[in-house]
Design a protein that fits this description.
430 residues; 3 domains; eleven-stranded mixed β-sheet; Rossmann fold
């Protein structure tokens, strides 16, 4: 079939010939790419002349994710009902501190205005410090320029260099969880969980007739001072309940009971129950679901655990329920880590999913092309140093389903998550 290379057909008309349709599509695509390329080059030339245009463009091009659109519950009156409320504990504590400092006749608008005023004052202080540093640098530059002018005899005008694009500073806000701001009603409802830390001793077991023995043995390496006892699958063996096992563990000095649940028709973990045992009564009882379980040996480039007590990173737990879970995770590890092991366990909460990771870190020299680590003041934190990470495993994801004051359902539920509970996608419980 003969084919003539003629001008493409208009976009409003759809050619009947397949080859002509392909040619028209490629021509339109090429034209769009050329227009985008010209726009990028034009923008690059304008930003080279004025660096503030680039900073303004990057500031405006922030993606609007669900995390950015997160909504909070307002008008919280009774603290006893705050466990299931989406309230930022840190912002609430700051607002109450301002209310105490404000006069008695100050209304809500005045408190919010003071909060904004204090944030603006902090920003102004940071800007003043940056201006002082810039002035000092400019004085040094002026002296060096004057010396060069004295030494040079040529009358040629100096060449003006284009300003180098500034690298955006690291975020000043931290998502680390400050457990010192936990509400008082949590400490009253769960006094054993918020008591002074003790050396944990953990008993690990599985659900009845479970085959997850290798998975449970991995938890022994993940949690220090832990022991694993199998629940017998023999037909004539006694079937002890969770309450009886928890009482058995408490009488022998255990502080926590961890039960790994197996999926109904699969040989993989499906849930993780954690029972706190240090109080006068058994509980609280936390029910988590497990997903995306990956053993350490299946991770590419994984390392082997050395058995040292790790450091903890509790990240992005903001609500009272999130602080309760963070306090539980904190109680599972000894209070004093062994820094010579260079091991860190991270529990990162994002959209009510808790991502559990374990790494080993090492400090190494920075290579030539690697970018430095900058602080909030846009200065290098570690000179010629970088941090390397090696994942040890296991890797899994938790989601909180229910919190019982005692063991199982009998003692009443403090909080429960049900399917299709999120009527609003931008509201999260933790």
């Amino acid at each position: 079939m003969a084919f003539s290379k003629s001008t493409p057909m208009p976009t409003s008309l759809k050619p009947k010939n397949k080859l002509r349709r392909q040619q028209t599509y490629l021509a339109i695509k090429k034209e769009k790419e050329a227009a985008k390329r010209d726009m990028r080059h034009k923008r690059k030339r304008e930003e080279a002349k004025d660096s503030s245009l680039r900073e303004e463009r990057l500031a405006n091009n922030q993606p609007k994710t669900i995390d950015v659109k997160r909504t909070w519950d307002e008008g919280v009156a009774d603290e006893e009902d705050m466990l299931g409320m989406a309230v930022d504990v840190e912002q609430l504590a700051k607002r109450r501190r301002l209310e105490q400092e404000a006069p008695e006749d100050a209304d809500e608008d005045g408190v919010l205005a003071q909060l904004k005023k204090r944030e603006m004052e902090d920003d102004e202080d940071e800007e003043d410090e940056d201006e002082q540093d810039d002035d000092a640098d400019s004085m040094l530059d002026s002296d060096s320029d004057a010396e060069e002018d004295d030494d040079s005899d040529s009358d040629a005008p100096p060449k003006r260099k284009a300003p180098a694009p500034k690298r955006a500073a690291s975020p000043t806000t931290s998502t680390a969880t400050n457990l010192e701001l936990s509400p008082e009603f949590l400490k009253q409802k769960f006094p054993a969980l918020f008591a002074p830390p003790v050396e944990p001793k953990i008993l690990i077991t599985t659900s009845i007739n479970s085959t997850l023995h290798k998975h449970a043995e991995i938890l022994i390496d993940l949690f220090p001072n832990s022991n694993y006892i199998r629940r017998s699958a023999h037909f004539g063996a006694p079937k002890y309940s969770v309450r009886e096992i928890a009482q058995f563990a408490k009488n022998r000095g255990y502080t926590h009971l961890i039960i790994m649940m197996q999926a109904l028709h699969e040989k993989k973990p499906d849930g993780l129950d954690v029972v706190h045992l240090t109080g006068d009564t058994l509980g609280p009882h936390f029910h988590f679901s497990i997903s995306n379980w990956i053993e350490g040996k299946k991770l590419p480039g994984h390392g082997n655990s050395t058995g040292h007590i790790p450091e903890l990173i509790l990240n992005n737990f903001k609500t009272p329920l999130g602080h309760l879970c963070a306090q539980l995770f904190k109680s599972l590890y000894p209070p004093q880590p062994q820094f010579q092991g260079r091991t860190v366990v991270t529990m990162h909460n994002q959209r009510d999913y808790i991502f559990w990771r374990r790494h080993r870190y090492v400090f190494r020299e920075k290579k030539g092309r690697e970018k430095p680590v900058l602080g909030s003041d846009n200065k290098e934190i570690l000179e010629n140093l970088k941090t390397g990470l090696q994942e040890l495993g296991p890797r899994f994801t938790l989601k909180l389903r229910r919190v019982d004051r005692g063991v199982q359902y009998k003692s009443g539920q403090e909080w429960q998550w049900k399917g299709k509970m999120e009527k609003q996608r931008t509201r999260f419980n933790m």
